[in-house]
Amino acid sequence: MSTQPLPLSGVTVVAVEQAVAAPFATRQLADLGARVVKIERPDGGDFARGYDTAARGLASHFVWCNRGKESVAVDLKDPRGLALVRRMVAGADVFVQNLAQGAAARLGLDAATLCAAHPWLIAVDVSGYGARGPYAHKRAYDMLVQCEAGLVSVTGTPEQPVKSGIPAADIAAGMYAFSGVLAALVRRGTTGRGGPVEVSLLDSLAEWMGHPLHHGMHGGAAPARTGLAHAVIAPYDAYPTVDGLVLLSVQNDREWRRLAERVLGRPELADDPAFATNTARVAGRAATDAVVATALAPLTAAEALARLDAAGIACARLNSVAELADHPQLTARDRWREVESPVGPLRALLPPIVFPDAPEPRMDRIPALGQDTDEVLAELGVPEAEVKELRDAGVIA
Asked: Model's pTM, two decimal places?
């Protein structure tokens, strides 16, 4: 039985957001109990609504990043609409925006301006490259930032660099915006003051590049692209079996000994100078991989995984996205829920942060564009006649 509320119950967030980075951050705030009011354009809303129609007619990115929010459709270019949003912000705890660089400042919705007017407010500016410097006004879509941050240079095969299959720069910035809000809330609890928070996609992904960055700066060369293999550990790769690939990782020489004795059936390799240390195995990677591949090739994937598990060797299947959706571990731990949406219930994962002594994270509906406009404006005290006038003028939807 839960004994405490969700940690962000009672916190109100207003977000002028689009695409992935800021919506991913605010969705996590909503999951943990915050009320999130999402401000969208009346003419189509968050452009991520139009990325695809894969989720039974809805866009998969939007479904992922926007459950648990209220949608208010307001034209910020109209002074009447902007005044409404400012009134919403005045009653909020947190404001988040990821408009194009300079756009929020022109509207008076940048963190510095808002925090000067509302000292208790936590205001987050999410940008591509930060507010200053030669890249400040460049467009910063995820793939471009992956390239600028060097992620693409270390991802892929020796012949072909590739971007990450997920929007890594957006996710990184969203995670730092989320944790930045949490840290600012803690500080406000002790000082009584909010303040501005700045997060950029480049800074976020550059931090995630820590291993190759430090390897390259201090070791003389960045790690090579090695596909599924690891640049400085061996064996660490995918190996074929009778009916599919199996991945394994040997992290130290003790594990190599167990692998040689209990899986490969080659105990002499544990002390062979050509294989006994990780440095030797990496230097002779082709021979190391050949020994492992030869031992696993006659086995089924299930047999190989059973042997590896019994020997205490880290291993995995190479799952498809469909196999992830039916992963036995997620099913066994009851990680799936249904979320309401304009097209009916959609399956969704519980968020990763678990509070065993609190209610389950909020998994509220995915809003239709402008679904909550009237209710939120009523809370602000806007008369029905004015709401109708604003709607007729296209200021709200």
From this structure: 0.93
3-state DSSP assignment of residue 80: helix
Q: How far apart are CA 258 and CA 24, in angstroms?
A: 42
Q: How far apart are CA 259 and CA 307, in angstroms?
A: 9
Q: Which residues of 163-190 are buried (b: 16+ CB within 10 A; e: fewer)?
A: bbeebbbbbbbbbbbbebbbebbeebee
Q: How confident is residue 148, by pLDDT bands cut at 50, 70 and 90?
A: very high
Q: Structure tokens of 105? A: 């400042």
The torsion angles phi and psi of 60, rounded to 5 degrees, stand at: -65, -40
* Cβ proximity of 205 and 146 under 8 Å: yes
Task: Tell me the β-bridge partners of 71.
Answer: 38
**pLDDT tens profile 258-314:** 999 999 999 999 999 999 999 999 999 999 999 999 999 999 999 999 999 999 999
Q: Active-site positions?
A: 170
Where in 112-243 does DSSP place strands (E)? 122-127, 195-200, 236-241
Query: Mind listing the pLDDT tens digit for each residue in 246-260?
Result: 999 999 999 999 999
Q: Are 341 and 63 in contact (CB under 8 A)?
A: yes
